[in-house]
Structure formats: C-alpha cells, structure tokens
Amino acid sequence: MPKAKYQLDDFLALVDNEHKDYVFQVHEIMMQEGYKLKIQTTKQYGLHVAYRQPKVKSVTGIIAYFLIQNDELMVRINASNHAKYPDILNSLPGNILSQMDTADDCKKFIDPQKCWTGCNGYDIRIRKQTLQKMPYKLFFACYG
Which string of DSSP letters, residue by residue, matches the chain? Predict the structure, then answer.
C-alpha cells in the first residue's frame, strides 16, 4: 500500500488557530532559505513536519514540528542553528518562551569543571531574555 502524501495544509488543519500564523511564518522562512519540507506520520508523534537542508538526510533545519497523539502541538528547534534565525526565535509564542525558561540551567555556565567536556551549552538571547540552558531541554517545548 503506498504511503499517503501530506501537504502543509493537512498539518495546519490540525493546529489551533492561535498558532497557525507562527507555523506558517516559519514555513515561509524555511522555504525562502531553500530547506526541503518533509511531512509524514510516525507512531510516536502522529503527523510530523520537518525542514532539512537539500542533500542532507538528517534534519538539520532549525525547526521540526510534531503533532503528538493527544493533539498537543510540539516544537523542536535545532539549537546549533539558533544564531542563523533570530527572527524565528524572537517571534516564539510567549508560552513556549516561558517553558524554555524552566529548562535546566547548563552547568557549563555555572561551573565548567562540573559539565562534561563535549557539552555545547547554549547562551541564547530571545527578545531581551538571556537563556543559558541545557541544549537538549532548551529547544523542545509544546504548546498547551
């Protein structure tokens, strides 16, 4: 049986009205930057939207959206590209920014000796707020 082909409109139909503008804004930026759009279903996340660079198999774009099974919209941001897209980060909805603020502080910025040597903790400014957080917890948040 062939896989179903999904469009951005299929995903947007599942997103709350208050978040559609943000999803569409990010989509427009990623398309202008030449990223490829991939929409598929997964057992864990339901409908999954990701942006990746052409000819690169992994998701290296700044944002991938997930719609998990309990209808909660989640956003994952690839932190290694945070400086490339300040407009996307500065326009994050307030509830996402407040969730990011609750992520664990990175030990690298508190005491570098207590953090593992390969740590890439992030010191990021979003709007006028500075976040020095653990890389894996900072950029994974959900809309309530």
Answer: -PPPP--HHHHHTTS-HHHHHHHHHHHHHHHHTTPEEEEEEETTTEEEEEEE-TT--S--SSEEEEE-TTS-EEEEE-GGGGGG-HHHHHT--HHHHHHHHTSPBPHHHH-GGGS-TT---EEEEETTEEEEE-HHHHTEEE--
